[in-house]
Every structure is written in structure tokens, then in C-alpha cells.
Predict the structure.
Amino acid sequence: MGNVLISVGQVVCQNPVFTSVTYTGNRYEFNLNWTSQASYFYQFDNTIVMYLYIECYLPGNSSPYFNQQVPTPPALPFDGSNYIINVLDYDSTFSAKNRLVFRLVMSGESTCTTETTYEFPPDTIT
């Protein structure tokens, strides 16, 4: 059988996808689920990683007052299943009146960098 050559330039980079983000009912704790192409890309780019950011916005502001990457290690999974995160662990001043955005980034040195976001509007978290 012959070798299969893959041109990284021909790789179609698709955004990771939040399949669900739900409020658990515990104070500012969320259950995140996502899928990505990272497992596929890892076959020819072992630098591929996932990053998760928490962004918090005060009412009426378009710039976040808080923007932090969830620390790694441990590395984020390429496909997240029931990834629990409590916003208060990162921003102790967060309140339900603020807008909350989760940003998921897939990045590789020789493939691609792409991202997606999931937003909770203000006053929808109790």
C-alpha cells in the first residue's frame, strides 16, 4: 500500500462547537460540552491544544472587565464531556447581572487556530 500524503495547507479548519452549556443550579457552576477536530489534527500536528477562556462583562460594556484562561495542566480534552467549571473560582466578583462568555480555542502550530464562544446574557443565571 502506498503512502498517503496530507498537505496541511489543504486542511479545513473548523471551529470547535459547544454542544451544550448548562447552568447546574449550583451558584455560578456550569457544565460544558464540546466537540472539535483536534483529535484528527493531532495525527499530524502534536502541538494541537485546547484553551478555555472566561470573559465577564459589566452591564452595558462591550469590553470584558475579566478575561482569563482556565489554567492548564491538566490539558483540556479535545472533546469535552461534562466539564464542570465554577466562575467564582476565577472571578470572585461575578454576579448574575453580568454577561458571561465562554471562549473555546483550538490551536496548533502547523495546522490552525480557531475558536467559538457561548454567551449567557445578563440576568439569566440565578
In short: The mean pLDDT is 91. The helical segments are 38-42. The longest strand covers residues 49-57.
